[in-house]
Amino acid sequence: MGARVSFVQRVRDSIVLKSPDVEEPIDAYFHRRLAALVTAAVHPTPLRPDHITWMSLFIGWVASAVMALTVFDVVGDYGYIAAAALLLISVVLDCADGQLARARGGGTRMGRILDGLVDSAVLVPFYVFMGIDILLRHGWPYFALAAVAGFGAWIQIMVYDRAKSVYLANTRPGAHADGVETMEEVLAEYEEIKRSGTLFERFMMHTYINGQLKLSEKFSGSGALNLREVTEESAQAYRARFRPTMRLASILGLGTHMFFIYGGVLLLGWSQWGTVATQVVFVTLFIPMFLVISRIKVMNQAP
């Protein structure tokens, strides 16, 4: 019988990063450390990563419901604080499902696709109600600002996730466990799922191929990858060329956007300009930064 691992040790073991080069700072130093507590708690239990993913979706939808009730004055301004706290919990659980999968030896493609769909299913309704709140408080010009910020955030998150996979594919041998895949692999699994998968699995794979991969190709010039053999020399050359860009781009991911979203909503408990301030950051800082970064060919696979 093996030695019993303490909770503290499980927490330490649960802080598993894909790579310091691609991790968002807010995730590495905040979200994932909170998620490690969840991972350590559920690791000895029968709960699977997809269970944590569904919990994240449920709590994210509760956050949107509380946000809606607050926006339409069903509850008081304390609802903003509750909605922000619930969204934070959803984000932490979103980190925990991947950490639990890696702690147990790696996840599956379907698990990653489900995780991506849940991210969108949490973000979109919350952002819509936040936009309605901005419209009711400040009028159409500020709502237009939020719309531009939201569209920009969607593109940035999608392209950053793809650039992250490309970077890992070219700097880490055996990076398939982190979501790196070829189109041939994706299509082969899709054919298998069409033969023997459930209706929901077919829906997820269809959405992934015709949604995320095609949109990634449109905005970033790369869909699924054409992987090549990674050597230590090629990895070092690729890292030397693109690491500064990836570190800069790491603030454009989902975790950073979520931090500003729930942070802005939290501030509504004290100032009506909390969410507008975050939209200004998205439009005046994140979008220009994305435009500059996108001109650097991070998506190129050859170093």
TrEMBL record:
Annotated GO MF terms: phosphotransferase activity, for other substituted phosphate groups
Pfam (any one): CDP-OH_P_transf
Highest taxon of source: Bacteria
Any single GO BP term: phospholipid biosynthetic process
InterPro entries: CDP-OH_P_trans, CDP-OH_PTrfase_TM_dom, CDP_ALCOHOL_P_TRANSF_CS
UniProt KW keywords: Membrane, Transferase, Transmembrane, Transmembrane helix
Gene Ontology cellular component list: membrane
Transmembrane segments: 52-72, 78-96, 117-136, 142-160, 248-270, 276-293
Family that this chain belongs to: Belongs to the CDP-alcohol phosphatidyltransferase class-I family.
Protein name per its UniProtKB record: CDP-alcohol phosphatidyltransferase family protein
Species name: Microvenator marinus
